[in-house]
Specification:
The structure is a single chain. This protein is mainly alpha-helical and 168 residues long. It has two domains: 79 residues, no CATH class; 63 residues, RNA-binding S4 domain (Structural Genomics Hypothetical 15.5 Kd Protein In mrcA-pckA Intergenic Region, Chain A). It is built from nine helices and three strands. Strands 2-1-3 form a three-stranded antiparallel beta sheet. The relative contact order is 0.10.
């Protein structure tokens, strides 16, 4: 089974560590999305890789098995906000790391204007100033679903909430 204190690794590192194109692309993503380190990129790449693998295996599956599993996968990706409502498996194969990084709490807090910079968004989340439906979330890498997107605001006890109410 394994030791419960040692959880399974959530990411796979790149096969070749020193390819210039990959290093430049990772550095650009680090700055654009305000990530702490490259491991956060590798986690996102692994998640997208798993979704794409599921889609490829469903394309090869018999029709009886494929229909139900395809609907479940597309519904899950729609609820995560990664795909539009009438998407197909080909759209799943077109998913990119940037699509997933756009759904992180840190990015959405910045895009909603709750923080001035992407780095400030990360700090507000880690320090407990951001809540989803009144519930504090302290993980900047939290993947926000479509239903939760409108519920993101300052935490009820945050001084930023009081300041925002005074300005209005």
């Amino acid at each position: 089974m394994g030791d419960p204190r040692k959880p399974r690794k959530k990411w796979m590192s790149p096969g070749h560590p020193w390819r210039k194109e990959r290093l430049e692309a990772e550095l650009k993503l680090l700055g654009q999305y305000g990530l702490r380190n490259k491991r956060e990129i590798w986690i996102a790449q692994t998640i997208v890789r798993k979704f794409r693998h599921q889609a490829r295996s469903l394309l090869a599956a018999p029709k009886e098995v494929r229909e139900q599993a395809e609907k479940a996968l597309l519904r899950r990706l729609y609820n995560l906000g990664l795909l539009p409502e009438n998407a197909t498996l080909d759209d799943v194969l077109r998913l990119t790391v940037e699509d997933l990084l756009e759904r992180r709490l840190q990015t959405i807090v910045y895009k909603k204007g709750l923080a001035r910079t992407i780095y400030q968004a990360r700090q507000l989340i880690v320090h407990g100033h951001i809540a989803i439906a009144g519930r504090r979330v302290t993980s900047p890498g939290y993947l926000v679903s479509r239903s939760e997107e409108d519920l993101i605001d300052y935490a009820p006890t945050s001084p930023f909430k009081v300041k925002a109410q005074e300005e209005v």
